[in-house]
Amino acid sequence: MKNNYTLSVGAWGCAAGIALSLVFYGLFLVDTTAVVYTTIAVDAGPIIKTIAQETLQTEEGSISAIKIEELKEWVLRLPLSGIKKDKDTVFVTVFDSGSTKDKRIVLGAIGDSYAEVKQGLKFGDVVALKVERR
Hints:
4-stranded antiparallel β-sheet, alpha+beta, conserved putative lor/sdh protein from methanococcus maripaludis s2 fold, about 130 residues, 3-stranded antiparallel β-sheet
């Protein structure tokens, strides 16, 4: 019985040592930085620009009036937060098959939240809005 107990303690000690080594290796020797992408697919829709906004105070409360202009009715568009500019070059970061690459684009009408994409992207392309390293 004593031999079985010694063998069991030895096996558990060896397993614990291996597990501890793997944890140490994982925590200190392996780069565990994760890259998190916030993405959006290129879609189609209107490009809207707010021209004027007024708020009137009355005894009953507030009344707001917003005058908007629809610059384009139904176009390929992308949120402004996904568009980058470097000097005279306008580009986006396209997410494709687990990797990213910068792609040059040509813009048309620019609204409050979206810009028209005239060249460089097609409907359904996935664009990285934000890249975080954790």
